[in-house]
């Protein structure tokens, strides 16, 4: 995912996978490449999470595959997998999933939760107990019509924007949000980081540093990591601006977006 798109397409063409598992934003890019005739893969099954019905129809048509929805997190994968009735059945012998309100009281079935707590029963090396995933989840009231007795949920998708940044020649290069934020997430002293695109080749970096971290040193480290990542994508021209303001929530949901793309006309 962190590779430049052209390299990824070439590698996938060489491998021609039977199963493709990725984020919806990454699959949308691949479907576009397939539509444009640059990608020629023939997967049987595509697994993703959090995509909408229209995304799903486009993916199925472009990639010629069955599209399955899973609910996954790096703390446990897969937490749940879809059924023909559109619910995600939780692997509850391995994971406990608790939809909760803001004050961590249980959310009744049928109502969207504020967040959800995950307990991993399979990982005996690093215990994860009631880990706050930050997703809004609706638990199905009563048994599912598909006959699967495992508890069923629906998840409001996490949807960060795909960035389109202009290179030095004015060509738009697609950058996936999870790819560009990965080097920053690993940087020491970073509590939260938000990237806001303010021009075709300008990213404003909002940083919140952890306790005891030296803000200037953290910024220099983050700037170097982002510049290194961008150079690898052919985007060494992109300007990184240090923002005075802290990362902000947006929208009615109050959900935190790590990457906010510039709104531009489609095409
Ligand atoms: Zn079901």
Keywords:
267 residues; 16 strands; GMP Synthetase, Chain A, domain 3; 3 domains; binds zinc ion; 5 helices
Describe how the helices and strands are arranged:
Blueprint: H1 5-15, E1 19-21, H2 24-35, E2 45-48, H3 53-63, E3 66-73, E4 76-82, E5 88-90, E6 95-100, E7 115-120, E8 128-132, E9 137-139, E10 152-155, E11 163-166, E12 172-175, H4 177-185, E13 190-199, E14 202-209, H5 215-232, E15 239-242, E16 259-260
Parallel strand pairs: 1-2, 2-3, 13-16, 14-15
Antiparallel strand pairs: 3-4, 4-5, 5-10, 6-7, 7-8, 9-10, 11-12, 13-14
Helix pairs in contact: 2-3, 4-5
Bound molecules: zinc ion.
Fraction of residues in helices? 10-25%
Strand count: 16
Task: Write out the strand line-up for the largest beta sheet, numbering strands in chain order.
Answer: 1-2-3-4-5-10-9
Count of folded domains: 3
Bound molecules: zinc ion
Helix-strand makeup class: alpha/beta
Q: What is the CATH topology assignment of the largest domain?
A: GMP Synthetase, Chain A, domain 3
The biggest beta sheet is recorded as: 7 strands, mixed
Q: What is the strand content? A: 25-35%
Distance between the termini: 23 Å
CATH class of the largest domain: Alpha Beta
In the CATH hierarchy, what is the architecture of the largest domain at level 2? 2-Layer Sandwich
How many distinct helices?
5
Helix/strand order: HEHEHEEEEEEEEEEHEEHEE
CATH superfamily of the largest domain: ANL, C-terminal domain
Shape: globular
Average residue pLDDT? 87
Q: Uncertain spans, ≥5 residues at pLDDT below 50?
A: none
């Amino acid at each position: 995912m962190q590779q430049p798109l052209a390299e990824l397409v070439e590698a996938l063409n060489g491998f021609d996978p039977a199963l493709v598992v990725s984020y919806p934003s990454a699959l949308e890019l691949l479907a576009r490449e397939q539509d444009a005739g640059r990608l020629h893969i023939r997967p049987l099954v595509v697994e993703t999470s959090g995509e909408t019905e229209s995304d799903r129809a486009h993916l199925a048509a472009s990639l010629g595959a069955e599209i399955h929805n899973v609910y996954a997190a790096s703390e446990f994968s897969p937490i749940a997998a879809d059924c023909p009735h559109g619910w995600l059945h939780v692997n509850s012998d391995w994971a406990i999933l608790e939809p909760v309100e803001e004050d961590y009281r249980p959310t009744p079935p049928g109502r969207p939760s504020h967040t959800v707590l995950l307990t991993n029963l399979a990982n005996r090396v690093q215990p994860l107990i009631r880990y706050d995933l930050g997703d809004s989840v609706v638990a199905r009231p009563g048994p599912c019509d598909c006959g699967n007795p495992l508890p069923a949920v629906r998840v409001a998708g996490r949807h960060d924007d795909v960035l389109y940044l202009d290179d030095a020649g004015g060509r738009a290069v697609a950058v996936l949000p999870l790819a560009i934020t990965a080097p920053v997430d690993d940087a020491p002293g970073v509590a939260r980081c938000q990237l806001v695109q303010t021009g075709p080749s300008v990213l404003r970096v909002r940083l919140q540093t952890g306790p005891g971290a030296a803000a200037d040193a953290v910024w220099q480290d983050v700037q170097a990591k982002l510049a290194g990542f961008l150079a690898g994508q052919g985007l060494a021209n992109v300007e990184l601006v240090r923002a005075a303001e802290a990362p902000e929530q947006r929208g009615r949901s109050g959900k935190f977006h790590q990457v906010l793309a510039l709104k531009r006309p489609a095409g």
